[in-house]
Amino acid sequence: MTALLEVEGLVKHFVAERSVFGRPTAHVKAVDGVSFTVEAGKTLALVGESGCGKSTVSRLVLRLIEPDAGRVTFEGRDLGTLDAAHLRAFRRDAQLIFQDPYASLNPRMMVSQILTEPLALHNLVPAADRRARVEELLRLVGLEPRFARRYPHEFSGGQRQRVAIARALAVEPKLIICDEPVSALDVSIRSQILNLLRDLQDRLKLAYIFVSHDLAVVKHIADRVAVMNLGTIVETAEAQALFAAPRHPYSRALLSAIPVPKPRAKRSRIVLEGELPSALNPPTGCRFHTRCPYVVARCRSEVPQLREDGTGYATACHRTGELPGAEAIVPSDGGFSPALEKLVAAFNAAEASERRGVISQEIKT
Fold it and tell me: Is 27 inside a domain boundary?
């Protein structure tokens, strides 16, 4: 199957300091050789600590910022060669949902204006039919058509994010980049937005790049996961395989930090020690070696390559085959049983339906 999106060797360094003559003297190596693919109708999650380059990658993919090196290909087209007209056409196929719904919507525009703007920009719907299209988009994300004449400040956080999702869907995209779309929301609302995104993906055959630092969220929405550390990808795999048996020490430390919903459960938490490197001056060799409990001399001098094993699993670690089994690090009780997962999913669906009914009743009264 041909990938919808292919990213090869993406690099982006930001100038941090300049000399008195204006010459760059220090760079932040935000993204340093990132490669991955996204298939149509699938979800790739980019995960890692804050500052590892996840959001920068998403903006490079959309050409909101220009890369220093590398190539981004969408449906066989090299995005770096597109002129302004063709780049605008590409923006219809690839949209972005921002992290903060309070900042991503224009407070001076009604919802109808927010949703009509992309329709007019891309000339997708005749002016006479745009009101009907706006109502259709609102229904699609679980909002009442009457909300079209409201301003963003009149909505809750979850409702604002639904409006942001509707705006992304207005131009009928094939790829949506979700930049931590639930991190600014209450925990009780997150499951509703995640369920909505999954439902829209199934109905509209959308592809997602899901940027997040919350692995508990990623586990339930991603098909594949790419783990980033200091601007590089250290591990990629199918989501189920990675959560069952992570191979890279950094991935294992991230997974061991996921809260377990069992207060008395015994856990094997990995606490990383050592110096936290800076993207201004990343360490030589493996960028994780200053905190890795399995570091050897080779890790300090030689950069590990991201190598596949033939099963779709790729790891950038010199000692992958020598590390202890994942069961010794990631607690076996770190997740839900299949029966409990079904129960949680059913509860979330019922909660979302009930909440929509309550909101509708409040509006009527």
Answer: yes
